[in-house]
Amino acid sequence: MAKSVPDHIVIGAGFTGLVHAFLSLEKGESVLVLEKKDRAGGLIRSVPTEYGIVETAANGILNCWELETLSSRLGLDLLFPDADAKKRYIFSDKKFKRLPLSVFEIIRFIFSALTVPSKPIPGESIYKWGKRVVGESFLSKVVEPALGGIYAGDLDAMSAEFVLGKFLAEDVPLWKNFRSYANSRKGKPKLHPGRKGTVSFRGGLGSILGALEARVSSQGKIKYKQEIISLKDIRKAYPNARITLATNLSFALKILKAEFKELKGYQGMLETLPIVSVTRFGKDSILSGKKGFGVLFPKDHKSFSSELGIRTRGILFNDFIFSGRTSDGIHSETYIMGGAGDREIASKAEEEIISIVEEDRKKLLPSGEIPLNHYVTVWKDALPVYGPQLFAFNRDLDRVLPPDIKVEGNFRSGIGLKSILERAFEQYGPKTS
């Protein structure tokens, strides 16, 4: 039973907050979670429809020993992708290609990887780093769609030191930095090769959120519809509790700058990007007989235009990735749009967004069939801009925050659910008996 006076206050009941609350409970602490909405989960929801499951945010998590451990403790079985769905494509020259590079471009990249110092220079953008280290062709055809698909950002505005720094810590060529990074992780438990890659759960990612919420509610306490005004109020109500702030960037800055004057200067400097996802159900696939995980569409780093005028950043092939995601004979494709260069799409009506998706799809498959249904999700503050300002903000957080206040989220030292899990497990350490 939860203590009346908690040891640990967690603000936010999204994935980050629930993971921290769960691990804190596992360490024997009493926990209170405060959530401003009337439900837990944050961006992540798995919505069942008559055609199949819709993921409102991520469709899976990169597997790691931390996820294996967490799933086991929650009594959940991981769902692994179908072997045929591991192929990832990049759209180039009107085709879905596994590697959109010529032989000469591949040789150029290999030469650079073997010879050019790859550690990011302070203040260097991803675009400038890419031109210097891997060459313009590899940058535009591989790096841009890959990082654009993950961060939805502008390579000119993204900090290479922030995004790549932990992988490229030494002033040596790429291959040596990758070897050093791999060596630094040798002490961590290893996964069986067949268990690597993106995984999910039978009922979608919502399954792990539901399991976390149930466990935290039963062993700790979650209060919904809580309006958090300031850290000072929480400290006054719970003077001996430590606090973990697990919210989005905008709310975190709002709360923190009122308490720490060193952070006030970041108001108006830290931008966020909108993301729009549309899950489309139909009886045909744009892969036309092939199978795969997804396809990315390279964008020009200045105009953000792409080949054929495709507005979509990437498409996930949900029913190919995980079995049981749709009804028999139905295909599910999730179109990801928005981010840098296309912020306005988040303000459009749902019907207009669907029309844009269908226009893009017609360019890829002119003879495509009529869709059965669409499910639109709009997140206006989904991802932060991973630029030098956010990098500086993170360094200042580490410098000014007292030991009893932690800040976690996708704006910290690594994007993605896997990074959030790794940082949380590192903080709480092994489970106590």
TrEMBL record:
Swiss-Prot/TrEMBL cofactor(s): FAD
Main location: cytoplasm
Gene Ontology biological process terms, A to Z: heme biosynthetic process
Domain of life (superkingdom): Bacteria
Pathway participation: Porphyrin-containing compound metabolism; protoheme biosynthesis
Reactions the enzyme catalyzes: coproporphyrinogen III + 3 O2 = coproporphyrin III + 3 H2O2
Boundaries of every Amine oxidase domain copy: 16-233, 303-394
EC number: 1.3.3.15
Classification via Pfam families: Amino_oxidase (PF01593)
InterPro entries referenced in this protein's UniProt entry, alphabetically: Amino_oxidase, FAD/NAD-bd_sf, Protoporphyrinogen_oxidase, Zeta_carotene_desat/Oxidored
GO cellular component: cytoplasm
Subcellular localization: Cytoplasm
UniProt KW keywords: Cytoplasm, FAD, Flavoprotein, Heme biosynthesis, Oxidoreductase
One Gene Ontology molecular-function label: oxygen-dependent protoporphyrinogen oxidase activity
Family: Belongs to the protoporphyrinogen/coproporphyrinogen oxidase family. Coproporphyrinogen III oxidase subfamily.
Function: Involved in coproporphyrin-dependent heme b biosynthesis. Catalyzes the oxidation of coproporphyrinogen III to coproporphyrin III.
Entries under NCBIfam families matching the protein: proto_IX_ox
Stated name of the protein: Coproporphyrinogen III oxidase
Source organism: Leptospira semungkisensis
Lineage per the UniProt record: Bacteria, Pseudomonadati, Spirochaetota, Spirochaetia, Leptospirales
The encoding gene: hemG
